Amino acid sequence: MPWKNRFTGDVTVDSFAFIIHAMEVGDIKKRIKPLRYLPDSWVERLASRRKPFVLSHVNGVRSQFNGKKIKGWFVGLPMTSRALITYPPDFVAEKIRQCGRLAQEQGAQVMGLGAFTSVAGDGGITAREGLDIALTTGNSYTVATALEALRIACQKMDIDLEEESVAVVGATGSIGKACALILSRQGKNIRLVGRDPEKTQQVLKEIRKISGNRISAHTDVEEGIRGARAIITVTSAVESIVKPDWIEQKAVVCDVSRPRNIAEEVVRVRRDVLVIEGGVVDVPGDPDFGMDFGYPPGKSYACMAETMALVLEERYENFTLGKEVKVEKVEEIERIASKHGFRVSGLRGFGKELTDEEIEKIRKAR
Questions:
Q1: Secondary structure of 3-70 in HEC code, one letter for each residue
Q2: Quick one: which of 164, 160, 188, 191 has its CA closest to 176?
Q3: How far apart are CA 117 and CA 301, in angstroms?
Q4: Of the candidates 146, 141, 142, which has an alpha carbon nearest to the alpha carbon of residue 183?
Q5: Structural domains present in the chain
Q6: Digit-coded pLDDT (tens) for 122-158
Q7: Which one, of 154, 97, 102, lies nearest residue 129 by Cα?
């Protein structure tokens, strides 16, 4: 519904904002030419002191449910992934607040924390202090679309999820536990993999209360994934934790972690394994994002889609914040997104959409 921007007094349509940051130093050097000749550490330090800016204006997002139109802005944050997770949490929180204040000035009601801004610190809890705009990490819809992408990928790889076991690496974490609980409600056989034996057993007991299917617990990653042709990894490890020769032939691995748990080495060495990061989401209407962020026209990341779906639903609230992802939130945002026309339409791996031809080649590899 139309509302009045308290900063400008103008009446405008409902709108959102979404933070996009530099993934690596090279991205900053391409945009800020004077920095291209400086050492990477200097570039990171100098760029992180710059104010956030409007990258592009988003138009054309329209609900398939009621025809509601919204607009938005991509807010550029000149910080790298490494800087966001290694710089002091208070500094990072203030940079996110600066993005929030800029989004407020544009008229946005909900702002999504893109990529590593949702990983840094306490997942937006501290950053929201002092802001009038609602924040969301987008992690709830990320979980929902990752599970949907896993289902689609397994179908394309001829894996029967009613018979096969799904290994969840990082099952004691909030996202991993949410994935395991949802899969158990769907009647799947699950192999829980966690570093802490006591916490892993606690999750095992919780799931056994609601599921009569085969559920096992493991503290060794190799032991936990061997024999499973469907794997989800959602740990906070800063390095790859899965070796190529541990993975079954013709398996699907869905890596939801940031940083990634699956190295590109797996793709190079194991031509018969399909590694995905999650789903590619169709955005309803005729969206014009005003920039190229690596996806085909009309498609977005799940975290972006969560932000847009909340505004279409007129849910101007801090929907997904913190390090915990609740099953109820995952199921709720999935219903909201589906209602307005968001759909998982493809699979992505290592930053690009995977074609059916590429997947078929993996399925037939020996």
A1: EECCCCCCEECCEEEEEEECCCHHHHHHHCHHHCCCCHHHHHHHHHCCCCEEEEEEEEEECCCCCCEE
A2: 191
A3: 14
A4: 146
A5: 3-138+282-345 (no CATH), 141-279+348-364 (3.40.50.720)
A6: 999 999 999 999 999 999 999 999 999 999 999 999 9
A7: 97
Q: Say which residues have a Cβ less than 8 Å from residue 169's Cβ, sequence separation at least 6.
A: 176, 193, 221, 224, 225, 231, 232, 233, 234, 235, 241, 242, 261
Q: Which of 76, 72, 32 is nearest to 54 (CA)?
A: 76
Distance CA 134, CA 123 (A): 13
* Nearest residue to 52 (alpha-carbon basis) of 26, 27, 74: 74
Torsion of CA 152, 153, 155, 156, to 10 degrees: 120
Q: Helices 139-156 and 356-364, interaxial angle, to 10°?
A: 50
Q: Which two tokens stand for residue 211?
A: 């599921």
Chain segment 24-40, per-residue pLDDT in tens = 899 999 888 888 889 99
Q: Residue 286: which of 49, 64, 29 has the closest Cα?
A: 64
Answer for the pair 347, 359: CB distance below 8 angstroms, yes or no: yes
Torsion, CA 144, CA 349, CA 305, CA 140, rounded to 10: 30
Sequence letter at residue 138:
G
Q: What tokens appear for 349 in the block?
A: 């791996």
pLDDT digit string, tens, across residues 164-182: 999 999 999 888 999 999 9
CA distance 80 to 26: 9
C-alpha distances (whole Å) from 89 to each of 83, 117, 236 are 10, 11, 17
Enter the tokens of residue 317.
């609230």
